[in-house]
Amino acid sequence: MTPEFEERLKKAIDDRTLPATVLVARDKSGKIDYTFAHGPTTLEPDAPPITPTTMMTMASMTKLITATCLLKLVEGKILEIDEDVTKYVETLAQQPILTGFDAAGQPTYKKRETPITLRHLLTHSAGTGYILMEEKLAKWAQATGRPLPVPLRHSPLSGGMSVDSRFGYPLLFEPGQGWVYGSSMDWAGRLIEKLTGAFFDDFVYENVLSRVGVPKGAITFHPGRFDEPVYDKMAGMAERNAETGKLEHKETEYDEDNEGFGGEGLYGGVGPYMKVLYSILMDDGKILKPETAKWLFEPLLRPVEKKAMNELMQNPDWAVGHIPGGVEYDWSAGGLLSMSGEGLGKRKTKFLQWGGAWNLCWFIDREAGVCGAVGTQVFPPSDPQVRASMKEFEDVVYSKLEHAGS
């Protein structure tokens, strides 16, 4: 992107201050078509170099692709945005609302009275939190004897191999009465198999990935399905040593027989993922008709939900990616929308973004005409040094965009 930026990044990777990194960016004019990849796939000896097609654990980068699948159902009039979907996800439908704890520390509940709609699931306003992110749910787990899940480990330590077993716990509020980041897109992913009868992985490939030229197996919930995978070696995970600040190899485990987790379960390369981002940027109709794709850039939160989310975004260190202060945020069918405020900087209104726990992120700015993504594999989530490099990459992309237009 610039020699100075690349040299700084390469030095930080070689020094094990930053992990192996893949960067991609494209603009509408065709003047920016950028790819950077540097570092070994793992920190073990003799690891091959990382490439744009190296398979990564994509975590919540999955959510955008699941959202496009759900919008395909809306486009086909199989689902409506404000339709009650509880009849398709029985385990979720049965969950009560966790109201607190009694004097003995036991959970207290009330029955859910409000329908759970597709809008609620797409926008994290259904009340479905993540047990490792919400203190109230962790306390519930302790009180009920449910072990806390251990990330990147085999089941049962992972929390379970199905959506029902991993995320079958109470809601935190009535749907539509708050905002909490959590498992709603995993539940939403279950709708696809329920309503189409298709295997989720096949539906994603046939209705999203193949339409933009992503080879079969390059992004998948089940990399073990393919006898001759078209991806390079799976990237290993790194973990930062708290004392030295340097990165070290982290052993991880994967359950090949997991269900397709629509909120977190995809594996894939950043290069293939860019094909999806670019199609959405261009609004080319390959995945979604323009009248359907607009849901990815339309604010969908109601006032009480929006207020709750913006309060959480005042301290966004729990999230991955550059999320500046001084911005009014909303949520679309696809992710976090930057709507207004001095903190926008060079971003335009309805800048769409999100990321994945293991320090990956993506963005699409339709008005500015640019999209990009960053891929790394670092535990734990939201590494401050990776976040700083994500911000610098975005700044360099917008600077390049300005020069390209002059």
From the structure above, extract its key features.
7-stranded antiparallel beta sheet, 406 residues, 12 helices, globular, Beta-lactamase, single chain, alpha+beta, 3-stranded antiparallel beta sheet
Describe this structure in words.
The chain has 406 residues and is an alpha+beta fold. It folds into two domains: 3-61 and 199-405, DD-peptidase/beta-lactamase superfamily (Beta-lactamase, 3-Layer(aba) Sandwich); 81-196, no CATH class. It has helices at residues 3-14, 62-75, 90-93, 118-123, 135-144, 163-167, 184-196, 200-209, 270-282, 290-293, 303-312, 384-405; strands at residues 21-27, 33-38, 56-57, 97-101, 107-110, 219-220, 237-240, 247-250, 267-268, 328-331, 336-340, 351-356, 360-365, 370-375, 378-379. The strands form four sheets. A seven-stranded antiparallel sheet has the order 2-1-14-13-12-11-10, with helices on both faces. Strand 7 (237-240) and strand 8 (247-250) form a beta hairpin. Helix 2 crosses helix 7 (184-196) and helix 2 (62-75) crosses helix 8 (200-209). The protein is globular. The mean pLDDT is 95. Belongs to the class-A beta-lactamase family. Residues 31-384 form the Beta-lactamase-related domain. This is Beta-lactamase/transpeptidase-like protein. InterPro entries: Beta-lactam-related, Beta-lactam/transpept-like, Diverse_Enzym_Activities.
